[in-house]
Automatic annotation (TrEMBL), chain A:
Name the UniProt record assigns to this protein: Protein misato homolog 1
Limits of the DML1/Misato tubulin domain: 156-337
Keywords of the record: Mitochondrion
Source organism of this protein record: Rehmannia glutinosa
Matches recorded under PANTHER family: MITOCHONDRIAL DISTRIBUTION REGULATOR MISATO, PROTEIN MISATO HOMOLOG 1
UniProt superkingdom: Eukaryota
Protein family membership: Belongs to the misato family.
UniProtKB/TrEMBL annotation, chain B:
InterPro entries: Chap_CCT_zeta, Chaperone_TCP-1, Chaperonin_TCP-1_CS, Cpn60/GroEL/TCP-1, GroEL-like_apical_dom_sf, GROEL-like_equatorial_sf, TCP-1-like_intermed_sf
Protein family according to the UniProt entry: Belongs to the TCP-1 chaperonin family.
Top-level taxonomic group: Eukaryota
Cell location: Cytoplasm
CDD domains for the chain: TCP1_zeta
Phylogenetic lineage: Eukaryota, Viridiplantae, Streptophyta, Embryophyta, Tracheophyta
Listed name of the protein: T-complex protein 1 subunit zeta
Natural source organism: Rehmannia glutinosa (Chinese foxglove)
Keyword Cytoplasm among UniProt keywords: yes
PROSITE patterns, sorted: TCP1_1, TCP1_2
Keyword Thylakoid set for record: no
Keywords, in A-Z order: ATP-binding, Chaperone, Cytoplasm, Nucleotide-binding
Pfam assignment, any one: Cpn60_TCP1
Length: 571, 534
C-alpha cells in the first residue's frame, strides 16, 4: 500500500481541505449504503491511501484522514480540536487534580452549532440509539424535513471551515497556533508567519504530529500539501516544508498553493500593495524550493471567469470558491488511489494509476525540469458527444496564465471521471480513452506527452456542498438544453454527482505568472533604492537572501524560456 | 503631521492620552495575571468556545491563550514571553512588575512630573538594584558534585507555585535527578536531552523518571518480541525502504516466477542493507542469548521488517530526530548513517526493552542502560489539560535547576525585594540629585509589588505585611514572608530560593519596557478605532 499524508496549512487551505474530506467521506458512505448506485459501490479506489485505521482507548475502531491541519487559534469554531471520536464519554467538568488552591474558571461564550452540525450530532446519537435497539425511525423522517433548511443555513452562515465538515478527525490532526497576538488582517506576509513558526514550540509540535502519521505508513508515496499562500501561513509552510525536505528525503511533496479570491490587494494603499507583491514573490520562491511539484491555484475572481457559465460562485464566500478548488484536488488525487492493474484487467472501473512519485517524475522529471504546473478543470465535464471538445472546455485555476501559447514540450496528466458518453450513459474506461485520444488528435496544440487516468465514479456531492451549480446542470451533472428551474443556483439536494475532468499541465503558459513574480522581486526588492528592501529585511531576508530568491525564480523562468536569459542579463 | 495629511482617517492620540492608554494596558494585563502569582495563587481554567478545557497557572501559557489586541499589552506580553524563553520562569512577575512601574509612574506624572525625569530615575534605580543583587545573591558552589539540596530547594520553590505540594515534592526529585543525569562537566546543559513523554491513563496522576528512553512508537511487525532483555541497540539513520529507481522503467514478464525474480532484483539493494545489519547481529549475539534492537530514523518497509523479524531483531522506524542523539547518550554506541561500516562498537546497550500498548498508542521503553546521559520524564494523567499543566511545570522546574547550576547562585525568595527597596530608599536616593529622586522612589515602591501580591493572594493584609517586613529588615535581618501566617521569616531556614538569572532578567527588562512606554507621547494608528474596549 502506498500511503499519502495530507497537510493543510492556513485558513483557506482548510476551507479547501474540508470540502476535500467531505467528498472522501461521501464516497465512503456511498460505497456502504445499499441504495446507492453501482458506480459508487465499486469505485475501485483504495481509500486506505488517504485514511488510517485506528483504535480508541475503549477499543472502538476508527477510520480517520491521515491529515495534519494548521490554523489560527479559534478557527475551529464550535468543533473541538481533539475531535469527538477519542473522548471518554463523561468528562467530569471540574477536576483540578493538580492544584488544591483556589480555581477561577473563564468560560468563553459557547459557540452555537449550526443546523448542519446539530443534525450530524442528532444523527450520531440516533445511530447509537438504534444499535441498542431503540426507536430511530421518527428521527429519520425528522432530519429529512430539515435538509433544505440545512442547505439554506450553510449558504448564509458558514464562518469557519468546520461549519460544513462532516468528517471525524483524529485528535492529532488539528493544530491551532496560539499566542500569535496579531489580528488576522495583520497576519499577511511571509515574515510574520516565519517568525511565528520559528519562535516557541509550534515547529516541534507540528513536526511531531506529522511524524505520528508518517511512522504508521509502510511505504508512503508522498505528501499532499495544501497551503494558503495569501499571508503569514506561507511563512509557516515554508519552514515546515524545509523540515520535511530534511527529514523525509524520499517522500515527494505535491504542493498546492491556494489563494482565495478576496485576498486581492487593496490598491489604494501603496505600501500594502508593495508588501503583497513582495510576499507573493518571496512566498512562491520559498515554497517551490522545498517541494517536488508546485501547483499555484486561485484565480483573482471565479465569478467572472469562464466557469460562471455553469457555476454560480460568490467570490466573497470562501465556502463557495474553495469547493471548486477542492473538487479539482480530489480529481487530481484519484490516480494515486487506483489499483495498478496488469494489461489483462479490462473490466476494471479505473485505469491509469500513478503515484505521486510517478506523477512528479512525469511532469517535472523529464527533459525540461519545470516544477510549476497549471491546474485546469472542467466542472462538470461535458458528454463526449457535445460540440465542444473536452480540451477546449478545460479552464485554468492557476492565475496569470498565458492563453493560446504553443509549447512543443508541454507535458500533461489528465484525470477524467464519471464522464458521460452521450446523454445519460456513463462512458466506460475504454470509451473515455478513445474520446480523449480523439480530442487530442483534433486539437490545435498538442502536448509532447500526456497521461490519462480515468475512473467511472463521478464526484459525489455531499449535503454540505454549496449551491453553486447553475440551472443548466442536471441531477447527475449532465448539461441540459433548457434551464431546469427558476432559481439560478442548484445545490446538493438537486445535483447528486458531477462528472469531472482535471489536468495538471507543465507548459510555458505559466511564464507570465513566474515573470510577474520575478519582476516584482527585482523592482521592489533588488533594485537600487527599492521600496521594499527595508520590508524584506524586517521579514528576515538580507540582501543575499533576496538575491538567492531572485535567482531561484529566474532559473524557473529560464527553464521554460531559454530566450529570457539574454534579456535578463542586460539589466 | 505628514501622516495626518496622507490619511485623514488616521487616529491620533497625543500626550496624556497616549500615556494613559499605555498605563491602562499595563495595569489591565497586571490585573489578569496577578491572581496567579505564588504558591497561594489561583489556577485558571479556560473553557473555549467548543468546550475545550485548558488549565493553567503559568503566566506564559496564559498569555499565549489570550487574544491580546492592545499594542501596548502585546509589547509587554512579548517581553514576558521572551523572559520565559530565555530563563524559563518569571513571566507573571515580569508582567506584574511592569504594570506596577507604570502604576507608580502614573502617580508621579499626575503630580506633574515629566516622564523623562522619571525614566532617568528608573535607570539609576535599575543599575543600583542590579548591583545590589550581586551583593545580595547567595553563591552556590557547583564544582563536580552539585549540592543536591540547594537544587531541590530551587526546584521545589518553582514547582510549588504550579502544582499542589505533594505532587510538587514528588516532581522535585525527578526534575533534579533528570538534570544531574544529563549534566556533563565543562559543557552547557542541553535540556533537550531530557525527553518529556506523556500517557493518558484513566485515573492515575503519576510521574516517574525513566533512566533511559521512552519512545512513542513500537515495532510494526506482529512477530517481533514485545519484551527483550540484554539488548544491543543499533541507532541508525538508514532507509530500509524499497525505492523505485528514478528512471522510468517498466518490467516485462511472462510468468509469475519471472515477475518474482524482477521484484527481487529491484529489492536487492535494500535487502543487502538489511543483511548487513543481520550479519552484525549474528556476530554479537552468536554465543549468547542477547537480543538486538534497531531504532531507525528513516522508514522500514514490511518486507524488511519481515526479514528482520525472522532474524529475531526488533526494529522501530521513524524515530524522532532528537532521539538519535538521546539514544546514544543513554545507551552508548554511536548513530550510524550507513550500514557499510558497522562494527560492534557502534552498538549501544540496554538491559531491558519492552513495549506498552494503550489503545492505538504504543510506547517502547529502553531501560536499564549502563551510564545514562539522557533520560525521560514520563507523565501520566487522566486528561490532556492535566498532562499539559504538569508538563509545563516540569519544564519550568528543569530550567530552574539548570539556571541554578549555571548561575552558581540563588536568591532568597521574597527577601530580595524588601531589602532592595530599603537599600534604594535609604542609600541610593541620597546620592541622586534633583527630581530623579522621585523616579528612584517610584522604582523602589514598585519592587514591593511581588511580596504585596503574594500577601494579597494569601488573604493577608498587604499594608501590615509590608510594614512588618520593612521594620524587620531595618533591624538588620534578612526577611521573607510566611504566606500562612503573614509573619516575617528567614527564607534561608525555610529553604525557598529563586533563580538569580530570572530575578536579574526581571529587574533588567521591566524598566526598559516601562520607560519606552512612558516616553511615548503620541500614538498614531491608521484604519482602526483604538479607543474601543478590548
Amino acid at each position: 500500500m502506498k500511503e499519502i499524508v495530507t497537510i493543510q496549512v492556513g485558513s483557506y487551505a482548510n476551507f479547501v481541505g474540508s470540502h476535500f474530506w467531505n467528498f472522501q467521506d461521501e464516497l465512503l458512505g456511498l460505497a456502504d449504503s445499499p441504495e446507492s448506485d453501482q458506480i459508487f459501490k465499486s469505485h475501485g479506489l483504495n481509500m486506505d491511501v488517504l485514511y488510517r485505521t485506528g483504535e480508541t482507548p475503549q477499543g472502538i475502531l476508527t477510520y480517520t484522514p491521515r491529515l495534519v491541519s494548521v490554523d489560527f487559534q479559534g478557527s475551529l469554531g464550535s468543533v473541538s480540536s481533539r475531535g469527538t471520536l477519542y473522548n471518554e464519554i463523561p468528562e467530569t467538568p471540574v477536576d483540578t487534580l493538580t492544584w488544591t488552591g483556589p480555581v477561577t474558571t473563564h468560560t468563553s461564550q459557547p459557540l452555537k452549532k449550526n443546523l448542519f452540525l446539530q443534525s450530524l450530532y442528532l444523527e450520531e446519537n440516533a445511530n447509537l440509539g438504534s444499535s441498542r435497539g431503540c426507536e430511530s425511525e421518527n428521527s429519520d423522517s425528522h432530519t429529512e424535513v430539515q435538509d433544505e433548511d440545512i442547505v439554506q443555513s450553510l449558504e448564509n452562515e458558514v464562518q469557519y471551515w468546520t461549519d460544513y465538515s462532516k468528517v471525524h478527525y483524529h485528535p492529532q490532526s488539528l493544530y491551532e497556533l496560539s499566542g500569535l497576538w496579531s489580528e488576522i488582517n495583520d497576519f499577511n506576509n511571509y515574515g510574520i508567519g516565519r517568525e511565528a513558526f520559528s519562535g516557541g514550540q509550534h515547529a516541534e509540535e507540528i513536526n511531531e504530529r506529522l511524524r505520528f502519521f508518517v511512522e504508521e505508513c509502510d511505504l508512503p508515496q508522498g505528501i499532499q500539501f495544501v497551503v494558503d499562500d495569501s499571508g503569514g501561513f506561507s511563512g509557516i509552510a515554508g519552514e515546515f516544508l524545509e523540515n520535511i525536505a530534511d527529514e523525509y528525503t524520499n517522500i515527494p511533496v505535491l504542493l498546492y498553493s491556494v489563494h482565495s479570491p478576496d485576498s486581492g490587494m487593496d490598491s489604494r494603499n501603496r505600501k500594502l500593495a508593495i508588501s503583497r507583491k513582495l510576499h507573493d514573490a518571496v512566498s512562491f520562491s520559498k515554497l517551490s524550493a522545498f517541494c517536488k511539484l508546485i501547483v499555484p491555484v486561485g484565480l483573482p475572481s471565479l465569478n467572472t471567469s469562464r466557469m460562471s457559465k455553469y457555476l454560480c460562485l460568490e467570490d466573497r464566500k470562501p465556502y463557495h470558491t474553495s469547493a471548486v478548488y477542492a473538487s479539482a484536488i480530489h480529481s487530481i488525487s484519484l490516480p494515486f488511489r487506483m489499483q495498478p492493474l496488469g494489461p489483462s484487467a479490462q473490466l476494471s472501473n479505473t485505469s491509469g494509476a500513478v503515484n505521486i512519485k510517478d506523477l512528479v517524475q512525469m511532469l517535472a522529471g523529464q527533459a525540461r525540469q519545470n516544477m510549476v504546473t497549471i491546474l485546469d478543470i472542467a466542472m462538470p465535464a461535458p458528454a463526449f458527444t457535445a460540440q465542444q471538445s473536452l480540451l477546449e472546455i478545460l479552464q485554468p485555476l492557476t492565475p496569470e496564465i498565458a492563453e493560446g501559447v504553443e509549447d512543443m514540450q508541454a507535458l500533461e496528466s489528465m484525470t477524467v471521471h464519471g464522464a458521460f458518453a452521450s446523454g445519460c450513459k456513463r462512458a466506460t474506461v475504454s470509451e473515455v480513452k478513445d474520446a480523449v485520444q480523439a480530442a487530442y488528435v483534433s486539437a490545435v496544440e498538442r502536448p509532447k506527452f500526456s497521461h490519462l487516468s480515468t475512473a467511472q465514479c463521478p464526484l459525489p456531492i455531499p449535503l454540505p456542498f454549496p449551491s453553486i451549480f447553475g440551472n443548466l446542470i442536471g441531477r447527475n451533472g449532465e448539461f441540459l438544453d433548457t434551464p431546469i428551474s427558476e432559481s439560478a443556483s442548484r445545490g446538493s439536494l438537486e445535483v447528486h454527482s458531477v462528472p469531472m475532468a482535471a489536468r495538471l499541465r507543465s507548459s510555458n503558459a505559466v511564464l507570465p505568472f513566474l515573470e510577474n513574480r520575478l519582476a516584482n522581486l527585482r523592482k521592489f526588492g533588488l533594485a537600487r533604492g527599492a521600496l521594499g528592501t527595508e520590508l524584506l529585511r524586517n521579514w528576515g531576508f538580507g540582501k543575499e537572501d533576496v538575491e538567492e530568491l531572485g535567482e531561484a525564480l529566474s532559473n524557473m523562468v529560464t527553464t521554460l524560456n531559454p530566450a529570457s536569459l539574454e534579456s535578463s542579463d542586460s539589466d | 503631521m505628514s501622516l495626518k495629511v496622507l490619511n485623514p482617517n488616521a487616529e491620533v492620540l497625543n500626550k496624556s492620552h497616549a500615556l494613559h492608554m499605555n498605563i491602562n494596558a499595563a495595569k489591565g494585563l497586571q490585573d489578569v495575571l496577578k491572581s496567579n502569582l505564588g504558591p497561594k495563587g489561583t489556577i485558571k481554567m479556560l473553557v473555549g468556545g467548543a468546550g475545550d478545557i485548558k488549565l493553567t497557572k503559568d503566566g506564559n501559557t496564559l498569555l499565549k491563550e489570550m487574544q491580546i489586541q492592545s499594542p501596548t499589552a502585546i509589547m509587554i506580553a512579548r517581553t514576558a514571553v521572551a523572559q520565559d524563553d530565555t530563563s524559563g520562569d518569571g513571566t507573571t512577575s515580569t508582567v506584574i512588575f511592569i504594570g506596577e512601574l507604570m502604576k507608580q509612574a502614573e502617580r508621579c506624572i499626575d503630580e506633574g512630573m515629566h516622564p523623562r525625569v522619571l525614566v532617568d530615575g528608573f535607570e539609576i534605580a535599575k543599575r543600583a538594584t542590579l548591583q545590589y543583587l550581586e551583593k545580595f545573591k547567595t553563591p552556590v558552589v557547583m564544582g563536580d558534585e552539585p549540592d543536591k539540596e540547594i537544587l531541590k530547594m530551587v526546584a521545589r520553590t518553582t514547582l510549588r507555585t504550579k502544582l499542589y505540594e505533594a505532587l510538587a515534592d514528588q516532581l522535585t526529585d525527578i526534575v533534579v535527578n533528570a538534570v544531574l543525569c544529563i549534566r556533563k562537566p565543562e559543557e552547557p546543559i542541553d535540556l533537550f536531552m531530557v525527553e518529556i513523554m506523556h500517557m493518558r491513563h484513566k485515573f492515575d496522576v503519576d510521574t516517574r523518571l525513566v533512566e533511559g528512553l521512552v519512545l512513542d512508537h513500537g515495532s510494526r511487525h506482529p512477530d517481533m518480541k514485545r519484551r527483550a532483555e540484554n539488548c544491543h541497540i543499533l541507532t541508525c539513520n538508514v532507509s530500509l525502504e524499497y525505492e523505485k529507481s528514478e528512471i522510468n522503467a517498466g518490467f516485462f514478464y511472462s510468468n509469475a516466477e519471472q515477475r518474482e525474480a524482477m521484484v527481487a532484483a529491484e529489492r536487492r539493494s535494500v535487502d543487502e542493507r538489511v543483511q548487513k545489519i543481520i550479519d552484525l547481529k549474528n556476530k554479537v549475539c552468536a554465543d549468547n542469548d542477547n537480543n538486538f534492537v534497531i531504532i531507525n530514523q528513516k522508514g522500514i518497509d514490511p518486507p524488511s521488517l519481515d526479514i528482520l523479524a525472522r532474524a529475531g531483531i526488533i526494529a522501530l522506524r521513524r524515530a524522532k530526530r532528537r532521539n538519535m542523539e538521546r539514544l546514544v547518550l543513554a545507551c552508548g554506541g554511536e548513530a550510524v548513517n550507513s550500514v557499510d561500516d558497522l562494527t560492534p562498537d557502534c552498538l549501544g546497550w540496554a538491559g531491558l526493552v519492552y513495549e506498552h500498548v494503550l489503545g492505538e498508542e504504543k510506547y517502547t521503553f529502553v531501560e536499564n542502560v549502563k551510564n545514562p546521559h539522557s533520560c525521560t520524564i514520563l507523565i501520566k494523567g487522566p486528561n490532556d489539560h492535566t498532562i499539559a499543566q504538569i508538563k509545563d511545570a516540569v519544564r519550568d522546574g528543569l530550567r530552574g535547576v539548570k539556571n541554578t547550576i549555571e548561575d552558581e547562585a540563588v536568591v532568597l525568595v521574597r527577601a530580595f525585594e524588601v531589602a532592595a527597596r530599603q537599600h534604594l530608599v535609604n542609600e541610593v536616593k541620597k546620592t541622586v540629585k534633583g527630581r530623579a529622586q522621585l523616579g528612584v522612589e517610584a522604582f523602589a515602591d514598585a519592587l514591593l509589588v511581588v511580596p504585596k501580591i503574594l500577601a494579597e493572594n494569601s488573604g493577608l493584609d498587604t499594608q501590615d505585611v509590608i510594614i512588618e517586613l520593612t521594620g524587620e529588615h531595618d533591624k538588620g535581618n534578612v526577611v521573607g514572608l510566611n504566606l500562612h501566617t503573614g509573619e516575617p521569616i528567614d527564607p534561608q531556614m525555610e529553604g525557598i530560593f529563586d533563580n538569580y538569572s530570572v530575578k536579574r532578567q526581571i529587574i533588567n527588562s521591566g524598566p526598559v519596557i516601562a520607560s519606552q512606554l512612558l516616553l511615548v507621547d503620541e500614538v498614531i494608528r491608521a484604519g482602526r478605532n483604538m479607543r474601543k474596549p478590548t
